[in-house]
Amino acid sequence: MHRIVAVTPAGRKRYLELLAHYVLADVTLEEWQLWDNCRDPRDRVFLEELAQRHPGRVKLVRLPGADGGLRSINRFYPTLNDPNAFYIKLDDDIVWLPRHFGARLYQQAAAERTQYIWWSPLIINNALCSWLLKYYSQVSIDADLTAQAGCVHAWRSPAFAVHLHRAFMEAVRSRALDAFEVPDFAVSLARFSINCIGFFGSDVLRLGAAFCPTEVDDEEWISAVLPSRVGRPGRIAGHLPVSHFSFYTQEHHLIASGVLDEYYRLAGLQPGRFEIPPLPFKHRLKRHLIARWLEARDAYVIALPNGDRPESGALQCLTPSQQ
Questions:
Q1: What's the pLDDT tens digit per position in 221-237?
Q2: Spatial separation of the C-alpha atoms in residues 269 and 18, rounded to whole Å
Q3: Are 99 and 113 in contact (CB under 8 A)?
Q4: In terms of residue numbers, what domain contains 129?
């Protein structure tokens, strides 16, 4: 039996408050390690407060020079080297977890220990998982999805993400999560967004720097290169859903849509006031035009098996001057 340890590259307070609700309620997660990779000092203060309120359960991990960049994250992987631990790395914007999530993912990993190198739940708002939902679940998805991590709809479009999130939340409320189940699938020779993955500390210890070199893109390496090197693919647990809020291509519009507030209410929490970091004008204009183009070419329809379509509000597309 391994210790089950949650790990989160942190952090953004607007998401971590919600993630903390789920992680700290999961008694099967023995420890929660927060990697201090904050850009905003206010987020760092929140991490410190979490650790102070939950001594022995929440642990801050700090490395010199961690500046909030993606490459800073790679330097933290070697700290996950307890051979008696099963680590579950959660993005800080995971916004819904099922009960006893830690034990459920670990049980599958323990049973398949020699066959796979990492395990992922079925992630709501993950391009490859959305493709699996389209072709293998009971959820009806009227969108031209591709089996690519950078799918123009499932990765780039905030409108698609809004509809998917609201269909999922309706399934949670109506206890119809069976609609979101798919068979288990292996992942190999393809990039997969590692929004939530589990792996064994003994593999990190054995592989050393080869588990995730400091100079690489950790998603590309861990999801595609590492499985090909060790001869063990990754594994998607199709019966175990987890909800991931957004990719950077979606975040501004998703917050404006109110979906994050809805996830807070789903958890029984009061939504906070969420600031959206400012973007340079050219990036705001580009995202606005892409969102408009995608909405014009595809009016997304995502429905549960009974034909219900959540209608809790349309996506609000902000103009560049409003963002």
A1: 999 999 999 999 999 99
A2: 8
A3: no
A4: 3-303
**Quick check: 51 and 16 in contact, CB under 8 A?**
no
φ/ψ of residue 150, rounded to 5 = -105, 30
Q: List % helix, strand, coil for the chain (3-state, nearest 5).
A: 40, 20, 40
Q: Strands 31-36 and 58-61: what pairing?
A: parallel
By DSSP bridging, strand 31-36 and strand 3-10 are parallel
pTM of the model: 0.90
- Which residue bears the tokens 């490395």? 63
Question: Taking a C-beta distance cutoff of 8 angstroms, is the pair 45, 51 a contact?
Answer: no
Amino acid at 249: T
Q: Is 278 left (phi over 0), alpha (psi -120 to 50) or beta?
A: beta
Of 171, 319, 155, nearest to 251 (Cα)?
155
In a domain, 274, yes or no: yes
Q: Are 305 and 176 in contact (CB under 8 A)?
A: yes
**Total of domains in the chain:** 1
pLDDT tens-digit readout, 85-103: 999 999 999 999 999 999 9
Weakest-pLDDT range from 12-21, 56-65, 106-115, 284-293: 284-293
Q: How far apart are CA 9 and CA 243, in angstroms?
A: 17
Position 299 scores a pLDDT of 73
Question: Does 318 fall in a domain?
Answer: no
**CATH number reported for the structural domain that contains residue 205 in this entry:** 3.90.550.10
Whether the ω angle into residue 68 lies within 30 degrees of 0, i.e. cis, is: no
34: left (phi over 0), alpha (psi -120 to 50) or beta: beta
Helices 259-266 and 158-173, packing angle to 10 deg: 20
With respect to residue 169, please indicate whether it lies within any of the assigned structural domains: yes
Query: What digits encode the pLDDT tens for the residues 151-183?
Result: 999 999 999 999 999 999 999 999 999 999 999
User: Does residue 283 form part of some domain?
Assistant: yes
End-to-end CA separation in angstroms for the chain: 49
The CA distance from 8 to 238, in Å, is 22
